[in-house]
Amino acid sequence: MTTPKAIPKPSLQRLPIYYRILKNALEHHEEFISSAEIGRRAKVSPQNVRKDLAFLPEQGQAGIGYSILSLANCLEDTLGLLKSKDAVIVGAGNLGKALALYPGFEKSGIQIVVAFDNDPDKVGEKIGDIPIMPIDKISNLVRRMKLKIGIITTPEETAQEMADLLIQGGCKAIWNFTPTMVKVPEDVMVRNEDLSMGIMVLSHYVESMKVINEKFE
Amino acid sequence: MTTPKAIPKPSLQRLPIYYRILKNALEHHEEFISSAEIGRRAKVSPQNVRKDLAFLPEQGQAGIGYSILSLANCLEDTLGLLKSKDAVIVGAGNLGKALALYPGFEKSGIQIVVAFDNDPDKVGEKIGDIPIMPIDKISNLVRRMKLKIGIITTPEETAQEMADLLIQGGCKAIWNFTPTMVKVPEDVMVRNEDLSMGIMVLSHYVESMKVINEKFE
DNA sequence: CAATCATTGTGAAATTGATAACAAATGATT
DNA sequence: AATCATTTGTTATCAATTTCACAATGATTG
Fold first, then answer.
1. What pLDDT is attached to residue B1?
2. Contact assignment for A85 to B196 by CB distance below 8 Å
């Protein structure tokens, strides 16, 4: 009934940072934390932290701050970290392997349950405990296992094709590590994580700084 | 004298997307492209595309659009993709290896020239052609080789330490793949690429969608 | 060659996000 | 019990970004 007002993207992207800080604080047996302290650690202004947290049902206590435990639980709920979710990786190259073995996913409740590759040498092998299957099984398996999250780390030429197969199988969220922008229906979320884009931005910064420095050197 | 007005961050982050689209169009032997078409492919409004491109020296032609070749060249210049730049990876784990071998960097003019790790078994080995050196050599080597770009893929506990060493050696841009927010001086750009953050955002989407779907199922 | 069409560049308006400011709440202190 | 310092939630303000609207421009057409 009361649509829980959608969280704006910038806020949503900061929530995982706060979550990380809270988990860390918990390990140090802290109990309460102020927006000022969260802000210091996350490099965000305290006001901004409070604004972000205002989107959550959890409330802070004036004079005290936020209960770290409650807030962390609340974030786990909001970010959907509690229910463990299964995901699939398409492309068992270096990047695919690295992601499959990335320890951070488990902490986020993500479990990679299967990988796909078209290389016959790889099919049948395993990445850790994760079996590698041929790509013509994608749709079927994704559907049968009710997987909703697909990660694409193939060469860019096949990215769209792989995305189509995943969606055909019922995937609703796609994490695309290739430089192509894959096209998806309205109801599917795609996050393009083109790594060379990141390097271009850094590259621009280093370049533009050189210009400035040349004046002074 | 005339400071070439700094490009706002949101615009800067879209430029690599446009660049990718232009390169793609070039391969299809297209010659001119309109802001509307770029926008369609990049999922950005045409006005916004024009505003972004207005930060570049390159101009479009009314009635025709932008010369794809000129604009691509201009972007290569602006993003510093022409001049090859050397970079360093700290942390020769799975992710570090995957990045070191990632083919996309070369296209962006980035060359990984050396990796560092504290594991004595890894030191002395190579990732492709890239030698792995002990971390106590970071500052020295970075300084001697005048490296400006550092990529951190160590466990999160050591991230800050590694960043400090890189900066001590003269690095001006740091790409941090650990979940920690590293602190850096004003003149150093840091890009935090916490992968588990990405998955949390997707995870949130899948969760929030479930709520909606449950109403209809 | 005039009229039309597609498309850019840009100033103004609207929206969105961030910061500042402050009343209300809470525990600590005197 | 009263006061003080701390810290939240919220409203108002400010800044950045995006969208809107349209005049200006150059190609195309009859």
1. 41
2. no
| Predicted local confidence at residue A2, as pLDDT | 39
Report the 10 Å Cβ neighbour count for A48: 16
Give B138 or A215, the one with higher predicted confidence. Answer: B138
**Among candidates A173, A166, A51, which has minimal Cα distance to B201?**
A173
Mean of pLDDT values over B120-145: 95
Q: What mean pLDDT, rounded, does chain B reach?
A: 88
Distance B50 CA to D29 C1' (A): 28
Angle CA A46–A51–A57, to nearest 5: 120
State the pTM of this model.
0.84
For A167-186, write each residue's pLDDT tens digit: 999 999 999 998 887 888 87
The three-state secondary structure class of A45 is: coil
- Report d(CA B175, CA B152) in Å as an integer: 6
* Contact with chain A for residue B148, Cβ under 8 A: yes
Query: pLDDT tens, A27-75?
Result: 999 999 999 999 999 989 999 999 999 999 999 999 999 999 999 999 9
Cα–Cα distance measured from residue B100 to residue A148, given in angstroms and rounded to the nearest whole number: 30
Confidence bin at A210 (pLDDT 50/70/90): low
Sign of CA dihedral A49, A55, A58, A64: positive
Q: Alpha carbon A209 to chain centroid distance?
A: 31
How far, in Å, CA of A173 to CA of A189, rounded?
5
Please name which of A187, A175, A185 lies closest in space to residue A90, comparing C-alpha atoms.
Answer: A175
Q: For B19-163, list the strands marked E by DSSP.
A: 32-33, 66-67, 85-90, 110-117, 126-127, 130-134, 149-152
Residue B42 φ/ψ region, left for φ over 0, alpha for ψ in the -120 to 50 degree band, beta for the rest: alpha
Cβ contacts of B179 within 8 Å, gap of 6 or more: A20, A104, B156, B194, B196, B197
How far, in Å, CA of B22 to CA of A179, rounded? 13
Give the model's pLDDT for residue A84.
66
Cα B69 to Cα B74: distance, rounded to the nearest angstrom: 9
How far is A207 from chain B, CA to nearest CA, in Å? 6
Q: Which residue is nearest to nucleotide C7 (CA to C1')?
A: B63
